[in-house]
Amino acid sequence: SINRMLADVEFRKEVVDNLENGRLDYLNKVRDEISFLQEDMKDLEKAKIVCRGQEIVLNLAAKVGGVDFNRQHLGTMFCDNVMINTNVLEAAREAQVERRPGWDCRQSGG
User: Fold this and answer.
1) Are 13 and 35 in contact (CB under 8 A)?
2) Beta strand ranges found along 12-91 (DSSP E)
3) How many C-beta atoms surround the C-beta of residue 98 within 10 A?
4) Alpha-carbon distance 80 to 72, whole Å?
5) Are 62 and 105 in contact (CB under 8 A)?
6) pTM of this prediction?
7) How far apart are CA 76 and CA 34, in angstroms?
8) Which residues contact 104 (CB under 8 A, 6 or more apart)?
9) Cα 103–Cα 106–Cα 84 angle in degrees, nearest 5
């Protein structure tokens, strides 16, 4: 998993999630190796705070709700995901993060 991969790398790791659909206990295996911030990346000011001082920003954030939910809420899902990605990219740019790898959104069936 991405959490295990990041835990094996030697640098400070901060995980950010608004916990809208997730749970903090999903990070139990790597909890001692990361710092966790509960923030919503749809808020540009929060994204700026999170990106400040970072060397690398690996954006894996996305709002997902399963295939049926996504189909029934196309506009909301699209706007929320555009806002998340735009804010993280802009916040990383403003913070002069040199590298911004890892634009990766995944969706599980539902």
Assistant:
1) yes
2) 14-17, 35-38
3) 10
4) 14
5) yes
6) 0.75
7) 31
8) 59, 60
9) 50
| 52 secondary structure, DSSP code | T
Burial class for 51, CB neighbours closer than 10 Å (0-12, 13-18, 19+): buried
Please, are residues 41 and 16 in contact by the beta-carbon 8 Å criterion?
Answer: yes
Tokens linked to 33: 């190796």
d(C-alpha 86, C-alpha 91), whole Å: 8
**CA angle in degrees (0–180, nearest 5) for 61-65-66:** 115
Summarised one tens digit per residue, pLDDT across range 31-66 is: 998 899 999 999 999 999 999 998 888 888 888 888
Look-up of token digits 């809420």? 73
Q: Could you tell me if 81 and 63 are in contact, meaning their C-beta atoms sit under 8 angstroms apart?
A: yes
